[in-house]
Specification:
There is one protein chain. The protein has helices spanning 12-28, 39-43, 50-58, 60-71, 76-92, 99-105, 122-136, 166-181, and strands at residues 2-7, 31-36, 144-147, 155-156. Helix 1 (12-28) links the parallel strand 1 and strand 2 (31-36). Helices cover 49% and strands 9% of the residues. It has a single domain, classed as Glutaredoxin (3-Layer(aba) Sandwich), CATH 3.40.30.10. Helix 4 (60-71) runs antiparallel to helix 5 (76-92) and helix 5 (76-92) crosses helix 6. Strands 2-1-3-4 form a four-stranded mixed beta sheet, sandwiched between helices. It is α+β, with helices and mostly antiparallel strands and 201 residues long. It is globular and about 45 Å long.
């Protein structure tokens, strides 16, 4: 199943959801397409917890590299690996990261690092965001997910407080697929009542 996953690299909630998605991917045969969604452009990362906000705002530049990689035909798993390396540095290491090393670590040509400071790629990011909004509406943000089995729609979220493991991860995925495929589902939401627990990998 193709899964389009719109992400902002500096959003900790998105990082948790992405790690859950990768936990599920090999067991549910998911083909993940990593799509740009800049919270910096959307709202200045207003919903990002304050301890991450400064780094999150600057993480927009990572999406420029993502778009350059996509344009160069870099395979989606490698783009996902680059995102993972960037997020690990942002949440658990030094920032700003050394972009050529992060690209090389993902098996991507380090020359694409030039896109990091190239505003010319911002239009591609905006177009990616517009595609998410066309499928999800005005609530599109990071993360937003679209499923091949539920065409012409997408959902913001799920926003997770921690990464489910094992069977719990699969159960949540199967429930999400069922919900996303049900035409009657409009919204499912509650206040954030649990603390954020970031995964290490």
């Amino acid at each position: 199943m193709r899964v389009d996953f719109w992400f902002h690299p500096g959003c900790p909630w998105t990082w948790v959801t992405s790690r859950w998605l990768l936990e599920v991917a090999p067991q549910r045969d998911l083909d993940i397409h990593w799509r740009s969604f800049s919270l910096t452009l959307l709202n200045g990362c207003a919903d990002v917890p304050k301890q991450y906000k400064e780094r999150a705002e600057s993480a927009h530049d990572v999406l420029r590299v993502v778009e350059a990689a996509r344009d160069a035909g870099v395979p989606q798993p490698a783009i996902g690996d680059f995102y993972a390396g960037a997020a690990r540095e942002l949440f658990h290491g030094d920032w700003p990261m050394h972009v050529p090393d992060a690209l090389a670590g993902a098996g991507i040509d380090p020359a694409l690092a030039g896109a990091f400071s190239d505003r010319g790629w911002d239009r591609a990011i905006e177009l990616s965001m517009l595609e998410a909004a066309d499928l999800c509406g005005s609530t599109a943000a990071s993360p937003t997910i679209a499923l091949e089995t539920a065409p012409d729609r997408a959902f913001f979220g799920p926003v997770l407080s921690h990464k489910p493991e094992g069977q719990a991860a699969l159960d949540l995925w199967d429930a999400f697929v069922t919900m996303a495929s049900a035409g009657a589902v409009y919204e499912l939401k509650r206040d954030r009542m649990e603390g954020l627990q970031l995964p290490q990998v």
